[in-house]
Structures are given as C-alpha cells and as structure tokens.
Design brief:
With about 550 residues, the protein is of the alpha/beta class. The chain is about 35% helix and about 25% strand. Strand 8 and strand 9 form a beta hairpin. The mean pLDDT is about 95. Cobalt (II) ion (CO) binds near residues 285 and 288.
C-alpha cells in the first residue's frame, strides 16, 4: 500500500446545485471526474483549520442509495480519504445508507461530516444520474459557502492524493483498514431505527397492526426498502409484504424513484382499489422524500406539513410543543395558517434543505417541509421519508381517524390551499434563462396589476436573509402574490442534469367548505392562464403543457 500523488486536469462544471453535484453517470465515470470533486472537497475540509490538516483524527460517514456506480465510488472515495488524512470512515454495509440515515449516523456518532452518494429522485442505472453531496457535522447539507469553496477548488485543482490499497469488502460488517485509515462497516439501519424508537410510540403502532391495520409502502426499488422492512414489518409487526419494491436495485428496476402521483401510479391504483389498505406511502431514491395517501385520497406535501404542525403534540417526540416551523418559499402557505393559530414562528426559506439547517441548529424551528414531498424535523438535518410515514401512522393511531378524515377536517378548520406544481422539463437552457430574465425585468409592471378578480399585491424575486448568520441568497424565484392569498411562482430547477426545468407553482386559498373538494387542476386553471400570459411558457418552449403536473 502506498499513497500516490497523481496529476489531474480541471473539470469546469462541478458546481453543486440544490442538493450536491448531479450529473449523468457517463459524466461521473470519466477518468478523474469523481476523484477531482472529492479531492477538492477534502482539500477544502482540511483547510478549515489553520493546520491545513483538519481531517487528521476525524471520522467521516459514507454511504449511498445503491444506484449504479455507488460501489465503485465508495472504493474510490476510501482511497482518497485515506490519502488525505481521514482517520476513520463509518461505511454503510454494501455501500448503503439513506440520506436521513447518514444524517442520523453523523449526529449520533459525532462524526466530522459525511458523504452521500445519491442523485435522490433522479432516475438511475447506466444511462441515469449519479450524485454526491457533503453533509457537515450537524448532519445537514453543506451550506452555500462550503459548496462554493469546493467549486472554486475544483477549478484550480492540479493533483489527486490517493492510496493504491486494494478494495475493501464493503459487504462484511466490522473493521478493515485502508492505509492508516480505519473503515468500520456498519449496519445501515441500526442508528436510524434507534432514533425512530425515541420519537414515536412503537407500542401504539404495534397495537394498530395487531388489530389489523393495513398499509402499503412502495420503496420504489430504492434505498428506503431495507429501512421500511426492518422497522415496519420487523419491529412493528406490519403484515409481511406491506413494503413493496423493497430491494435497492442499481437501476431502481426501471422505476423513477420520485414519489408523486405521476411516478407512483401503481401505488395510487392500489389505494383506489376496493380492497385498498388503510394507508399508503412511497419514498424516493435516497428515502428522504415521502408521499402519503389514504384510501382514494392523496395528501399534498404542503398539507402534510400543515397537519403535522397542527397535531405534533400527539407524538411523544414532540409532546412538549414545537419551537417553530419553516417551509420553502414555493411550498403552500397552509402551514402558515396553523403556525399563526398556534402562535408559532414560521419561516420562509429558499428551496433546498440546506436552508433549514441554521434554523434547526439555533433552536428556532422543530418541523420543516417542502412542496416537493419532503418533511422533516430537528431529529436530523435532512428531510426524512420513513419518519414522515411513522408520523402519519401515529396520527392515525392517536386519533383513530383515517387520512382523508384528518385532512378534510383540517380544511374545515383552516381553509384549503389548493396547490399544484407544473414542471416543464428539458427546455433549452438559453430559453429558460431568457424567460426568467424577462420575468424579472417585468416585475415593476406586474406590481399592482389586475388579472380578473385578482390583483398582484407583491411581485418580486425572492431573496432570503438567513436570520441566524445573516447570509443573503438572492434570485430564488419570481413570485406573484395576489390580494386573495393566491400565488404564482416561477423558478428553475437546480437538480436536473439535462437542459433546464422550469417549475411553475400555483396556489389559491379556499375557506368556503362547499368548495373545498374540487379537482385541483380545474381549480387552478385560471392561475395557470395568468402564468402563461405573463411568461409565455408555451410560446417560448413550443411545449403544449407541462411534462409533469403534481
Ligand atoms: C428539488 C426540489 C427541492 C428539493 C430538491 C432536493 O430541487 O424542488 O424542494 O429540496 O429537489 O430533493 P429543484 O432545485 O430541482 O427544484 V432530493 O430528494 O432530490 O435531494
Ligand atoms: Co431525495
């Protein structure tokens, strides 16, 4: 075994997006592509103290969602870590760790940080996407200062430091060695399961399954499977087979592990069938997202956050109440109404979980959520799919109410925020950028303008000043806020790997119970027309409608 220094050429496209660096597998498989990014990361981490050896004696956590290239990437990262001073790596067995589990392990074992190998909800397999992101010692996604520093480093990188040690056996639990670095292969589920036991009343949940409660959890052939099987079927006694597509596959079995009503049609069909189980749920590629459903009923993620906030004290982990709540800007304002009623601080952040980290660390919020099927809490620093499933199970157990009952009675009390997101995928980058630039230029003329019965009370480009460290994030999306509570929001995706994706978010508020059970898309047609009128999406893109409407 020896540590080698190898010259390398710069790649100019390694800027992390909303959640780490995501590219096509073919891009990542180019010689030195992954290595360069990891080397730059390790250099930046080492430079975080005056010795320039900050990783000496430190522990990193490593694991991924099991997609194609996961295993090769693990071996490469170990060789780089060993050559850059890392003392110890905690590696999920088989190279597997869900994103929430990485966060949980970092926190419970007080690691220096962790590396997550995942492109999350993006498709996998040899023609799909791969991704990598760094989580800091709080268990959460690196902040923008760190990701920008890594990007800057990738642009001046000249050499790699790596060990030529043989590959380790990542399927064998226990200790191994790469140079002087210790690798401990750990059970990917154990720490996470221990944390769930601390938050939820497992006896209550066991009782529900004993009395015949049924559920279907679709793990979409992604990393959530082993966690859901171990906890729901193994510990809580849900009937065998309740968790389907439970084996993480390198190509997700051809499924698109992005749980929404379009990609989870099989689950929806089961939930609409005559013999539907009581409860349905799905998770994404790295198991941080969740979709929850009742019989014949889909819960929108924004509503999910609002209901969790309203009922949190029913859950042992939150029985003393919440410190506050936060939602990403495009997420519906349903939770704002609950926060107001409960007297809780409510924060509006840019898209991406990294913006919740400071609020959680500072004890300003307990629950957070995004419209993109993500909810989570201060128990870790990532959104958490299985946690959300356990939360919703607990709500049903504690109240004896069905999912549909819970949601519709919530609307009666707080009103309903009708909500949809329209994605226009694969737009030429120049077209998408021009559309956004023109919208930004038109903001002054949109302010105060009337569309039908509605008037724009605020037209702006969302900017966020972090209340904890005062850092400012600009250009986070164009917002049209209307006088009746409706909103139209435009932003470009930061996780895609092909062309640009325009996300259009539409929301309207309805407090009249008579009108709270209408089809969502129909209810929002008028706002979609406003969006088209001001942005000219169809004319500019040549598309006749969104690629996905959820
Ligand atoms: C999307 C979602 C965002 C989420 C991010 C990562 O980002 O909109 O809410 O935090 O994905 O989720 P964007 O920039 O494409 O809109 V995950 O589960 O893919 O890591
Ligand atoms: Co994800």
């Amino acid at each position: 075994m020896a540590i080698q220094t190898i010259p390398t050429q710069v790649f100019t496209d390694q800027r992390p997006g909303t959640s780490g660096l995501r590219k096509k597998v073919g891009v990542f498989m180019q010689p030195h592509y992954l290595e360069n990014f990891v080397q730059a990361l390790l250099n930046v981490l080492n430079a975080s103290d005056a010795s320039n050896q900050a990783l000496q004696g430190k522990t990193l956590v490593l694991g991924g969602d099991g997609r194609f290239y996961n295993r090769a990437a693990v071996q490469m990262i170990l060789k780089l870590a060993a050559a850059n001073g890392v003392a110890r790596v905690l590696l999920g067995c088989g190279g597997i760790l869900s994103t929430p589990a990485v966060s949980a392990v970092i926190r419970r074992r007080q690691a220096f940080g962790g590396i997550v190998l995942s492109a999350s909800h993006n498709p996998g397999g040899p023609d799909g996407d791969f991704g990598i992101k760094y989580n800091a010692g709080n268990g959460g996604p690196a902040n923008e200062t760190l990701t920008e520093a890594v990007f800057a480093r990738t642009k001046v990188l000249t050499e790699l430091h790596l060990s030529n040690a043989p590959d380790i056996d990542m399927d064998r639990l226990g200790l191994q060695q790469v140079e002087h670095m210790q690798v401990e292969v750990i059970d990917p589920v154990a720490d996470y399961a221990a944390l769930m036991r601390e938050l939820f009343d497992f006896d209550l949940l066991r009782g529900m399954f004993n009395r015949g409660f049924t559920l279907r959890v679709d793990a979409m052939n992604a990393v959530g499977g082993p966690y859901a099987k171990a906890i729901l079927e193994g510990e809580l006694g849900a009937p065998a087979g309740s968790v389907v597509n439970a084996e993480p596959l390198e190509d997700f079995g051809g499924l698109h592990p992005d749980p929404n009503p379009v990609n989870a049609q099989d689950l929806i069909a089961h939930m609409n069938a005559a013999d539907a189980p009581d409860f349905g749920a799905a998770m994404d590629g790295d198991a941080d997202r969740n979709m929850v459903l009742g019989r014949n009923f889909v819960v929108t993620p924004s509503d999910s956050l609002a209901l969790m906030t309203a009922h949190a004290t029913l859950i042992p982990g939150y029985k003393d109440g919440l410190l506050g709540v936060a939602r990403s800007m495009p997420t519906s304002a349903a939770v704002d109404r609950v926060a107001k009623a409960l007297g809780l601080p409510c924060f509006e952040t840019p898209t991406g979980w990294k913006f919740f980290g400071n609020l959680l660390d500072a004890g300003r919020v307990t629950l957070c959520g995004e419209e993109s099927y993500g909810t989570g809490s201060s128990h870790i620093r990532e959104k958490d799919g299985l946690w959300a499933i356990l939360f919703w199970l607990s709500l049903q157990g504690a109240t004896g109410k069905s999912v549909q009952d819970l949601v519709t009675s919530h609307w009666l009390l707080y009103g309903r925020n009708y909500y949809t997101r329209h994605d226009y995928e694969g737009i030429a980058v120049e077209v998408a950028n021009a559309l956004m630039a023109d919208l930004r230029a038109a903001l002054p003329t949109l302010q105060g303008r009337a569309f039908g019965q509605r008037t724009v009370s605020l037209a702006d480009d969302f900017a966020y000043t972090d209340p904890v460290d005062a850092s400012v994030s600009k250009n986070q999306g164009v917002r049209l806020l209307f006088d009746d509570g409706a909103r139209v929001i435009f932003r470009l995706s930061g996780t895609g790997t092909e062309g640009a994706t325009l996300r259009l978010y539409l929301e309207s508020y309805e407090d009249d119970p008579v009108h709270q059970n209408e089809p969502v898309q129909a209810k929002l047609t008028e706002l979609a027309a406003v969006a088209e009128q001001v942005a000219g999406i169809r004319i500019r893109t040549g598309m006749t409608g969104p690629s996905v409407a959820t």
